[in-house]
Structure prediction request, 330 residues.
Amino acid sequence: MKYEQQKQVGNTPFVPLRGFQQTGAAEVWGKCEYLNPTGTPKDRLYTYIIEKLEESGQIQPGMTLVDASTGNGGGALARAANLKGYKSVIIMPEGMTQERKNVIKSWHGQIIESPAEEFLLGAERVALGFVEENPEARYLNQAGTQMNWQSMRSIGREVVEEFKKSGIKPQAFVCSIGTGGTYTGVATELENAFPGLLKIGIEVDKSAPLFSKRNARPFEHRHHNLMGLGPGKIGGNLNENMVDEVVTVSGDEAWQMMKKLVKKGYQTGPTSGANVLVALKYARRFGASGKIATVLFDASWKYISIWDGRYQHYQDASLPSEPPTAKVIV
Prediction:
């Protein structure tokens, strides 16, 4: 099964994952968000943010829009900004994939690399500093603005519509947690439509603040290879009440599952691998008639240059005592 990438934002296919059905277990359905224009559900986010800020008169074409991102959101912002007549500046931790940078450049976005050692917290620090020095710039703050999860409700509405059209009542929703926007937006719509649905959140084992909180463990952020997850804090868009259970996965296991998905025709990335890995484990709780919903996030072509899943800048690096200097590369 193979899909071509869409030109429009949203209304992505929602399909049962053929080739992954387990005997006597629930069927896993995936929302193919990797088919959005820049290969990520973040296309929904920045289209929504720009439209809402324009409607309220907070931004006007010609301004510079700034955000911190590992690259998925960066590409989506660069595209949405360019199409609407804005400049864009993306603050990315050093060491992200070249493919992500290429998307940003193709939409005339400027990239500033923040220190690898600080990961996304450092990118946010640099973004705030940039806006302070450039009064014409607006920091969109995807990690903090409530427009994040609100924009992702559109995914949930589309999932609900497809399930109801097919006469299906799902038993569970499984989704990784980064900023918490996609998780909260989709979970909110599914909970409204299917009360009692089991909602499972996923964190990467090396940076799992919610899992640590729930299990009364000290939280420690360590570098990992599931970019977009584990930013070093509980996402500002996460409604913790929407998380019935939280589990962790290892980055390497998620990458392995991603490659299985790619072989079956689902051209999606490692975070999707984490979602499917956990969904398949939970599928054993339900009978063969059960259904589980999940999201297939970003596109696999964004990882061609790092297909072994090893980020050079994130190999047991230690956190610095003093903030290093950001670097403008575009």
